[in-house]
Amino acid sequence: MEGRFPPLDSAKVEPARLEQRGLQFRPAVLVVQAGTPVIFPNRDPIYHSVFSYSEARKFDLGRYRPGEEPPAVVFDKPGTITLFCEVHDHMRGAIVVVDTPHFARSDAQGNFRLEGLPAG
Question: Which of 6, 16, 25, 54 is an S-S bond match for 81, by CB 3.0 to 4.6 Å?
Fold first, then answer.
């Protein structure tokens, strides 16, 4: 949904989680509103790293141990951020940052429901 929405205060928002588990980013695609912090916990028994060279948000968390959770990264600019693991070349993920609080993820059949929409 498009429109003018108040900016998100990242200090007051519960961080989203994008785990590394089973040598994959889970979920493979995460959608968040601009201003959302995201944490990247390592749930595998091996080292991982998370980084992106995407224009919307460049960052590099470096390598970290199993069970570690590096500091949250705030995604404050709309766009698609492609994620990589420096340790495991096959790992790819994405964060889609949107300007609206109104978005949904579809189920396996492609159905979705938008809740709390403003009138009009």
Answer: 54
Beta bridge partners, 94, equal: 29, 82
Question: pTM of the predicted model, to two decimals?
Answer: 0.89
In what side-by-side order are the strands of the sheet with 36-39? Answer: 16-17, 36-39, 73-75
Q: Which residues contact 119 (CB under 8 A, 6 or more apart)?
A: none
Sorted by sequence, the CB contacts under 8 Å of residue 120 that are 6+ apart come out as: none
Condensed to tens digits (0 to 9), the pLDDT of residues 41-56 reads 999 999 999 999 999 9
Contact 83, 52 (CB under 8 A): yes
Q: Which amino acid is at 113?
A: R
